[in-house]
Amino acid sequence: MFQKILIANRGEIALRVLRAARELGIQTVAVHSTADAEAMHVRLADESVCIGPPPSRDSYLNIHQIVAACEITGADAVHPGYGFLSENAKFADILAAHNITFIGPRADHIRIMGDKIEAKRTAQRLGIPVVPGSDGAVTDEATAKKIAAEIGYPVIIKASAGGGGRGMKVARSEADLEIALATARSEAGAAFGDDAVYVEKYLEKPRHIEVQVMGDGDGRAVHLGERDCSLQRRHQKVWEEANSPALNAADRTRIGTTVANAMAELSYAGAGTVEFLYENGEFYFIEMNTRLQVEHPVTEAITGIDLVHEQIRVASGSGLSVEQKDIKFNGHAIECRINAEDPKTFTPSPGTVSHFHTPGGLGIRVDSAVFSGYRIPPFYDSLIGKLIVHGSNRVECMMRLRRALGEFVVDGIKTTLPLFQELVNNTDIANGDYDIHWLEKYLADSH
Could you list the residue range(s) of the whole structural domain that residue 339 is in? Predict the structure, then answer.
């Protein structure tokens, strides 16, 4: 087991990793920018190192400084959390060159799954169902038109190196295709330095279903069920559930087994999430995230398995603590992402939190690094906390969530709490009747 883990992140995920390491008896090192000098993870870690000024490129993305911090403190492993360097294969390679363990998958798996076209090819090879579309990058309009005619309109143009909804355009007819192709390539080049795009069938009312997997790197992998992440705004997840209200036990076993078998064949190590669009009983692979997800707590709630503990175990060579037969799904869990944003315009709302009170009681978990008097800096993602609620079934979970949202107090800034207070009382949400377009339509109609 590791002696000391450096946490290359900030906010709630840094605190989440710190707690897991402490439970395992492992020393922790917090790195921070000057803007985060008073942050909770910095206060609680055994050691802390300032790695630069507020901009991420000069601090949390500064590989040089993070490696130096490992050498100064004697950290023998790095947990990257999510975002920042968590899916940076170069970072994993550099750590390995310095004999520091990257708590995550192998660099080659990060590279494969970071390239959307290569990821899709790999998924097909491993027996994972994919969305019909081009086999690789599409560089000219004639090829795009030919593929679109074969799979049928509407189609979606996607950036190969994409993420967060950038470089994605829908074409509903041949007349739309030329503009969609040019725009997607332009956006992809500007956002990712790579203008490669590909064409896929556009599903009209799918759900976003993702399967949580853990692999030991030696040919064994387990799945921990699925999460439903269909409530999204601008392709960013807002509300996540486990298990999905749309799936039955047979669907769950079918897709979970497919994913676990594929990851075992790949000899995948650590936590990963394979994401699908789900429509009319069929799953279609869209991407794989080779890291811990923001929404991992709902899986922990229904399985009782600490995913960060498992990540650390696998990276240290101790293997997985569970086999597939040991994993049971208990009840239902929902996570709401609380952002420091105006709940109507979604503009960021940094500033000082004058009062912070979290809900409590059975089945309530809040992952947050915020405290009364904390100043939210304007330099980073607006996520300030996650409310995770667990109940014996979805009805109880929704009732508990409604109560918890009424107790949650964040004063001094604007947050998205009022949005969730609306959603928890919405009939469609109560019935589990929504898809990936539902929230944006709701916001357009009601806000």
Answer: 207-446
**Is 234 known to be catalytic?**
no
65: left (phi over 0), alpha (psi -120 to 50) or beta: alpha
Same domain for 402 and 263? yes
Q: What's the CA gap between 60 and 379, in Å, rounded? A: 11
Longest dimension (CA), the chain: 61
Q: Predicted confidence band at 193 (pLDDT cuts at 50, 70, 90)? A: confident
Going by the DSSP 8-state scheme, the letter that residue 202 receives in this structure is P
212 with 357, same domain?
A: yes
Domain boundary among 201, 227, 244: 201
Counting the structural domains of the chain, the total is: 3
- Partnered with residue 231 across adjacent β-strands are 239
Q: Name the pLDDT band for 241 (thresholds 50, 70, 90).
A: very high
Using an 8 Å Cβ cutoff, are 107 and 92 in contact?
Answer: yes
Cβ atoms 149, 155 nearer than 8 A: no
pLDDT band at 447, cuts 50/70/90? low
Q: Which of 185, 207, 291, 313 is catalytic?
A: 291
Q: What is the pLDDT of residue 301?
A: 98
Residues 22 and 24: their CA atoms lie apart, in Å, by 5
| Residues in the chain, overall count | 447
Based on the domain organization, do 42 and 168 belong to the same domain? no
